[in-house]
């Protein structure tokens, strides 16, 4: 009998008990597949690039703190990777300690920098004068508390119970209701089929010339394509040269989106396609203007073919 195909191996930002793990459980509900916690976003992406994992679940942006630089840069540096899914997760933080510890005993607190940035005010109120320590993830901070390396962690409630910690304070977020957007990334291959409600992500390096960003934006605007995110990142070559990381509505298989990407390929110094995947934020893409619809593109193609064949 031929061997059964090996189950999909999923890397994620670990250790057990991270928000990334919770997001992975939401993305992958089927029990099959191996889950490999990784010590950092870079390690999770490297596992996919090397073939040790088939996909990685990593945080991309947070509604309070903005983008996650390790993921933004990790998707651009190195062999191409593409996003195949997005997952949104409500994030709520607790202050966790070893059983028996009271607030007055806490002399150190640790967490992922994104979690610390979302809880800074509350931590100052609860633990005045203590400078928080960064860890590679919120669950890594909980594990460090369990190991006696720090006194308190800002982490998910699930991480507190996973590492046998007590919760000293619930809901320590400065802005309740925060949401983190995670993405599942794979090596390039067959793209997810268009669903009619998709997003496309890319990073474009624009030249250092007047109007370069406007030219880029125009390619989307003239085709009636809405952007859902755009931000600049340094290219790390020199000050003044930037890449623009953006998400737009639609799938690369949609004629208007394909044409916009082709135009960017002509205009920009470099374009890295980061995938087309189903939109999962619970919102619907804006209706497409009649002149940008698939039917309008098909009709224009027929017209052009007739012109080219001499049928004026
Ligand atoms: O440390 C974790 O648990 C993560 O999944 C990472 C991460 C992030 O990178 O933003 C995810 C959600 C929270 O915003 C805090 C930390």
TrEMBL record:
GO terms under biological process: L-phenylalanine biosynthetic process
Site residues by UniProt (Essential for prephenate dehydratase activity): 180
Family annotation (InterPro entries): ACT-like_dom_sf, ACT_dom, Chor_mutase/pphenate_deHydtase, Preph_deHydtase, Preph_deHydtase_CS
EC number: 4.2.1.51
GO MF, one annotated term: prephenate dehydratase activity
Alphabetical UniProt keywords: Amino-acid biosynthesis, Aromatic amino acid biosynthesis, Lyase, Phenylalanine biosynthesis
Catalyzed reactions per annotation: prephenate + H(+) = 3-phenylpyruvate + CO2 + H2O
Domain Prephenate dehydratase intervals: 9-187
PROSITE patterns from the UniProt entry: ACT (PS51671), PREPHENATE_DEHYDR_1 (PS00857), PREPHENATE_DEHYDR_2 (PS00858), PREPHENATE_DEHYDR_3 (PS51171)
Domain ACT as annotated: residue spans: 201-278
One Pfam family matching this protein: PDT
Pathway this chain belongs to: Amino-acid biosynthesis; L-phenylalanine biosynthesis; phenylpyruvate from prephenate: step 1/1
GO cellular component: cytoplasm
NCBIfam families referenced in this protein's UniProt entry, alphabetically: PRK11898.1 (NF008865)
Protein's UniProt name: Prephenate dehydratase
């Amino acid at each position: 009998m031929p061997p059964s195909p090996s189950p999909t191996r999923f890397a994620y930002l670990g250790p057990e008990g991270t928000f990334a793990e919770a997001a992975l459980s939401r993305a992958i509900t089927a029990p099959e597949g191996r889950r490999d916690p990784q010590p950092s976003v870079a390690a999770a992406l490297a596992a996919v690039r090397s073939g040790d994992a088939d996909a990685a679940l990593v945080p991309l942006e947070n509604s309070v703190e903005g983008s996650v630089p390790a993921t933004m840069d990790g998707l651009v540096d190195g062999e191409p990777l593409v996003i195949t899914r997005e997952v949104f997760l409500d994030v709520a933080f607790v202050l966790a300690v070893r059983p028996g510890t009271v607030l007055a005993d806490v002399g150190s607190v640790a967490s992922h920098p994104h979690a610390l940035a979302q809880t800074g005010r509350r931590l100052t109120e609860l633990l005045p004068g203590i400078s928080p320590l960064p860890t590679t993830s919120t669950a890594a901070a909980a594990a460090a508390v369990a190991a006696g390396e720090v006194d308190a962690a800002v982490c998910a409630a699930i991480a507190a119970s996973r590492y046998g910690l007590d919760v000293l304070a619930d809901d320590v977020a400065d802005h309740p209701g925060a949401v983190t957007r995670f993405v599942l990334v794979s090596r390039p291959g067959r793209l997810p089929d268009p669903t009619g409600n998709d997003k496309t992500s890319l990073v474009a390096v624009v030249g250092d010339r007047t109007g370069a960003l406007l030219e880029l934006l125009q390619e989307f605007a003239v085709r009636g394509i809405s952007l859902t995110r755009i931000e600049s990142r340094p290219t790390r070559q020199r000050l003044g040269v930037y890449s623009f990381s953006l998400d737009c509505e639609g799938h690369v298989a949609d004629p208007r989106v394909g044409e916009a990407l082709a135009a960017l390929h002509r205009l920009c110094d470099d374009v890295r396609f980061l995938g087309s995947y189903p939109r999962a934020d619970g919102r619907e893409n804006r209706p497409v203007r009649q002149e940008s619809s698939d039917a309008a593109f098909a009709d224009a193609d027929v017209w052009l073919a007739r012109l080219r064949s001499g049928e004026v």
